[in-house]
């Protein structure tokens, strides 16, 4: 049994225009290769009923009425689509409602009609059952002893009167992929994108750039990390990546990025503190271990080396030169080392009431 695969089918594309043979732009599909059986079948058909757009035989399946080989048609590739475009089309489909007309419009734009046109062009004289055996094999119920599949029948949902599949099959003309309008028009999509960028507000632009900005911040932070940092902030970085992945799918909700920014700030603060301490304690034995103890809040005074010098700083507000003067800052600095004693003062006075 031959099934329908993504590599041979077109994607979801909202298109309310009729795909006729008069369209200016068509999908460039390769021609099918010749075969002896196909040549014989071509000679028996009228010129306007020749098969077009065949990719390869669909296993050993044969058409239910004519007995000819069933072929998989050449189909257009999935059209690339951004998240905002997907969301836009989802909103349009939801707005169609649940009545019969809305269901028909949805069926028309889910790729079903396009596939039916492909299958009809590749297999002249085929029926809905032939199409179902290729496109949706689970909707074809057949006897296990029959490998050809000709003794089977459509599933229950396919036999409902006036169902969408039957209506699409009866209302579609066989048109090969190379004669259909392209599902993805890069020129039109580029013009639409440029118009969207030209009309964006600054706040909307920042929202769209938020995933890339936070991703760049995490990437830069990882570049600055050292192996000694991973035990302390490795889990926080993983949590930031997980939240960023979830926030990027949160329908442009800027509040979803608050937790990501806080985690990145915490990790950056840790890295800066460790670097600052490592620079100040350069030359201390077992410096890295000592820095980790300081950052972790563990008492480590007994490990301190003897000081090279001591500094004392006294800062006080004082009224100078008189009691009616405003209180101004005064600073006294004292530095004592093994062979040096230095004392300096920075004094200020009120020049208005002096």
Automatic annotation (TrEMBL):
Keyword Endoplasmic reticulum attached: yes
Q: Where is this region: Disordered?
A: 1-39
Query: What PANTHER family does UniProt report for this protein, alphabetically?
Result: RAB3 GTPASE-ACTIVATING PROTEIN CATALYTIC SUBUNIT
Endoplasmic reticulum in keyword set:
yes
Point to the regions of Polar residues compositional bias.
Answer: 1-10
What one GO molecular function would you report for this record?
Answer: GTPase activator activity
Q: Which GO terms describe its cellular component?
A: endoplasmic reticulum; Golgi apparatus
Keywords tagged on the record: Cytoplasm, Endoplasmic reticulum, Golgi apparatus, GTPase activation
| Biased segments, Acidic residues type | 16-38
- Start and end residues of each Rab3GAP catalytic subunit C-terminal domain: 303-352
Q: What is this protein called?
A: Rab3 GTPase-activating protein catalytic subunit
**Annotated gene:** rab3gap1_0
Residue stretches spanning the membrane: none
Species in which this protein is naturally found: Amphibalanus amphitrite (Striped barnacle)
